[in-house]
Amino acid sequence: MKILIADKFPESAQTELGQAxxxxxxxxxxxxxxxxxxxxxxxxDVLVVRGNxxxxxxxxxxxLSLVVRAGAGYNTIDVKTASARGIYVANCPGKNSIAxxxxxxxxxxxxxxxxxxGVADLxxxxxxKKEYSKARGIFGRTLGLIGxxxxxxEMIVRARAFGxxxxxxxxxxxxxxxxxxxxEMKQSPLxxxxxxxxxxxxVALTGETRNLIDEKVLEAMKPGSYFINTSRAEVVDQTALExxxxxxxxxxxxxxxxxxxxxxxxxxxxxxxxxxxxxxTHHIGASTDQAQQAxxxxxxxxxxxxxxxxxxxxxxxVARKSPATHLLVVRHFDRVGVLADVFDRLxxxxxxxxxxxxxxxxxxxAAVARIHLDQAPSDQVLETIRAKTKDIIExxxxxx
Length: 400
Hints:
Elements: E1 2-5, H1 11-19, E2 23-26, H2 33-42, E3 46-49, H3 56-61, E4 66-69, H4 79-84, E5 88-91, H5 97-113, H6 115-123, H7 129-132, E6 143-146, H8 150-161, E7 166-169, H9 175-181, E8 184-185, H10 189-195, E9 198-201, H11 215-220, E10 226-229, H12 238-248, E11 251-254, E12 278-280, H13 289-309, E13 326-333, H14 338-348, E14 353-360, E15 366-373, H15 379-388, E16 392-399
Parallel strand pairs: 1-2, 1-3, 3-4, 4-5, 6-7, 6-9, 7-8, 9-10, 10-11, 11-12
Antiparallel strand pairs: 13-15, 13-16, 14-15
Helix pairs in contact: 5-8, 14-15
C-alpha cells in the first residue's frame, strides 16, 4: 500500500510506516496543481494531509481510497466528492485537545494581563508599570464554553484549577452530563454569552455552526468581556466581533481569523488586529510537539487498521443510515456461488443492495447473509431465490 504525505509529518512516523511495510511518498510542499499531479503520478492509495486543501479534482485525479486528515477538523477536504467516489475520509479527533486548551488559557491570561502590549513596550524601551497594573484577574470569573467535546472538557479541567466556574452549551450536552462535569448547562449560545465573563469557542465547522457566534450572541456579553476563538474563523461573525470590541470594550484572543493567510508565511492585513484589545496567534492551537506526536500516532493507527481490516477508524463520511427499506435474511450452506445467485436474482428484479453481511458459523458448514435492500422483493422473486438451489436453507424478509 502506497502512502502520499502532502504536509509536514514527523520523520519518526514516516520511518515507522516504512518499517510496517508501507511505501511512503513524502511531498510536504505539494499544494494545488502540484498536489493533484502528485496524487495522479504516485498511484497512492492513501493521502495524509494536515492543513492542505483537497479538492474534488484532486480526488478524481488518482486511485485514492482513503484520505487522512492529521488533525481534528476536515473542512479543507471535499468530503462530498470523496463520498461520491467511495473514498473514506478519516481524522484524528481529540489528539490535540490539551494543546488547544493550553493555548486558549494562554490567550485568556494574555488578555487579562495585557502581556503582548507590555512586552512590546519593554522591547521599545518603555516602562509603564502604572498602566499594566490594571489587570482584572480571572479567579471567580465565569468561563462560558460553546462546545463541550474533547477540547471543551480540557478547558473545564483548567478552569477548575484557576477557580473559574463554568457555564456551557453543546448540542450533545445533557443535564446529567453537565452534573458529572461539574458545570452549569445552558440552553443556547445566547444564554452562555449572557452568563459569562469569558466566552471560549470549541466547535467544529459545519453548516450549523457557521456564524454561530453572531451579533446577538456578542451583544449579549457583558461590556469588557473576553472572547476566545481557537476553533474556526467561520464560526464567528467577525464584523460583529469587531463592532463589539470597538463599541463595548470587549477583548478578543484569536488563533483563527477571517483574513488568515493560506500558506505557512505571508502578510496579515486583517483590520481586526489593528483594534486595541485584540491579540492573536498564528493558527497554532495544535502545534506542540506532544500534540503532533499524538496525531502522528493516531494517523499510523488509522492506516494500519485500514490495511489490515479494510475498515478505517474515525471515518466521517459513512452514512449513518443507508436508504435501505428492507432486510433480506438468507440462511444457506457455505458453498461457492450461493450468494452470487441471490444477487443475480435481485439484480434482475431491479433491486439494489445497500449493505450486506455474511456470518459464517463454526465449522464453516452454514452461514447467514443479511442483505439490506432499497425496496421489497416480490413474493415471486423470493420464491425464485428459495427454489434456485438446495444450498438455500431459509429466506425471510423484514421491513426496516
